[in-house]
């Protein structure tokens, strides 16, 4: 996109207007679009070191959701070609997860001096697309596709692959993610497909590909085999029949082996019965049925509800006992005769294997080699079927019985269960018929039950390379590390050969041409090679409809070689994405090799068996190393109730509405600060996004607005234009130096955590600094910023506040790109006229063109940070004491909940900060601590609104005592029988003894010696031990370090001052409500109802100094002379103390 207006100016900030985060973000988007900010930033970084990442492509056939938003904010690469993210319960909520993480990492890399190319990718092949077309056209089988024609079928697929691309682009860009949509890549592109062929060709040449018959998970709804990790994506709790069937022995038809199964539809292909060689089996006589059965002695409950009771009642009698190996070789009468003639000489016998268990059934497992992985393995081992021989498999691709099973021909296997059970009952072979509720795998696309089925498929060898895979993975960084070290490593250690072929149509075709007997196979690795071998010309498209008819002459006299029918599993395409997206090795060879492996990838937890796995397998086979250096694995976004998000349940909010209500920055911060980026699941709650606005974004915005207002006030009152000086002499003010040191700590922390890819730790530190800025620095320095200490000090305070805001904006720009851009645009007007002094480059149009700030080591001052930390501790404790308040003599309140519910206790009232108190006592045994707080005494007096502050190290004067508690559950394991002695004796231990324990780490309690760590000792204030001083009431609090005592006694003279402050407070609130700014001059008038207000009037007039200092005027009584002809800005009745007063603000 070419910039519409490279000189566009950002709209000026309106201090008096309500700030709508979503609307202001739209302004930022419009500004970025005008100056083509993203492409301009990329252009500016050309020639810098490259930072590479892999952006796995989403499907454009589904809409984006919250999970995508998170991953995109964190990650640089999502891969979901299996379509698992396309479940309707997720749609829309997994784009937020994508956009957040990815954008943060790439923005941060760019700001740290890297060239970061960002191209969006689209997954356009595979079952998700085909499934949509099958639903649309009513296609249910291969015959339907063949009748239609693969060319027309693929044309239908091509027509929908980009259906929602515009919605994706709108959502991704609305979230602030900078990525190139105009230079995207698609898996259907011929260049991408050709690189996939090259990857496969490399594996073929290394003898890492083979064709084998294997029992695989198979979806009857989509008529294709699936990989094992796909088969695990969608389990459902279902009820299936559980039948016990008899198999009479040929030697003695009066005795039957009993087998149990939950898949009656497989019984027509029964070839054997399997026992465990070491389990004990018994032959019993069943009295009720008058029959003899053989089964495992531990599983009689399959026949009898209570085997012990049944034995007592002589419902059965044990006749003989065997080991499983003793039964091997016995032959039995088949249930069905469909395959008897072909297999009578090698099947229908008892075999043994240790996979059989005694946890359910009868301990005898019915064997159907075409429909069970173990069944097939054992059948080959015992010569029932040959290795390359297809076992009896009388169903078509849709799971319909063929004419090989005439009694059930045309029936869907799952529907046939009941008819097979009925048939068995009629032949007397059904012994028990029940139902079983269990978890069963379903197809993630079609929603149909999966079956296991023997199919000829193409494999990539993996089992022989597990050691290499594990070793390569250990060379990479996982966040969290536990997933890579445990879950993923375990998956690698147990990896099986990978089925990479699918019997489908819309995908990259396997580039294999074979003779009819498969004895000659040619692998093609490029378009040019195909032309050389076949003379087909240089193809512009490699899909099935374009190449299926191409033939290659045999070099072994086998006529013409034809292409095999299969296409690649989409996971093979996803694993090939690093190479195929740049058409490697046909183009960009040097560029790719210089940036491989990727610096970073990220995806959800599922991808330990998906994208992460396929990437690693192919990279290990191709280059002998992992394809990534750093990887963030994310958990899943769930609904607020902990369930998966579901459109039908409507259990999650519309992501668009969330962004339109709170803005993208809020959603980004909420997601990136959640458990998801630590690999855990997140219960998505709208309240969490709302809290980000109120606790992070609004305080930051208000700090910026406050600065702007004070700069305007300086201009108005001093006629001085504030200009930021990046080389100004360091301030001597302690609070200035402290907040700037805090800024450096944040810069340092963000650098450290981002280099370790621990994104989730940054938001908490960001919030901490914003809290320090708003609730400590600005709060403590309002008077300085308003000019009370002279021009030089005001300029120093504004310089500090500007630098703090500017540092915050640059440090947090990757996390909250919209608000930080907005603030930056407002700060720019205070830049020095010679902007080269800033040392931030030549193009300052956007914050996102600027480098990440460097730590200024000279700003660190451990002494000042220690002093302010101690100041904060004292003030926090003082605030807590005020909140606890003072007693109300003679009054009581009732406890409303808990174990003491209903109990009467003395009533208390809090003491608001506006009411001055007489005395604060600060106790600490260390004089350095007291000196630190004493050095900042004015802040203590101002913030806690106290007249006198006493510093003391005297425990006696402050009533300091010591007590100890213990974690009894932990200590009990150590003390055992002696715990009771300690528990009873500890309350009797004196304060002095516990104080001594703090120093020595030893204490004797009832003859039991306790050491350091056994107890938690702490100081407390014994109010009764305080020196008596009239009617003073002290409140107190401590933090195991410092203790404060606050005289909360009511004093009329101080309460009158508090009422005066309350009047000031009410005027300030009205100013804010009216939208006034610091430069707006007003006069304040008041009035009372007839005959009231004399006391408050006297207080107002007795507090003129306070009023003029804060309000710049002293409120006056309202009358016609003062108010006539003046514009009334706002007028409201207020309640101050027990009085009602009407306050009127008019233009001065």
UniProtKB/TrEMBL annotation:
It is found in: Cytoplasm. Gene3D superfamilies: HUPs, Isoleucyl-tRNA Synthetase, Domain 1. The keyword Protein biosynthesis applies. Residues 736-884 form the Methionyl/Valyl/Leucyl/Isoleucyl-tRNA synthetase anticodon-binding domain. GO terms for biological process: isoleucyl-tRNA aminoacylation. InterPro entries: aa-tRNA-synth_Ia, Anticodon_Ile_ABEc, Ile-tRNA-ligase, Ile-tRNA-ligase_type2, M/V/L/I-tRNA-synth_anticd-bd, Rossmann-like_a/b/a_fold, tRNAsynth_Ia_anticodon-bd, Val/Leu/Ile-tRNA-synth_edit. It catalyses: tRNA(Ile) + L-isoleucine + ATP = L-isoleucyl-tRNA(Ile) + AMP + diphosphate. Keywords: Aminoacyl-tRNA synthetase, ATP-binding, Cytoplasm, Ligase, Nucleotide-binding, Protein biosynthesis. GO terms for cellular component: cytoplasm. It is an enzyme of class 6 (ligase). Residues 28-75, 100-678 form the Aminoacyl-tRNA synthetase class Ia domain. The keyword Cell membrane does not apply. This is isoleucine--tRNA ligase.
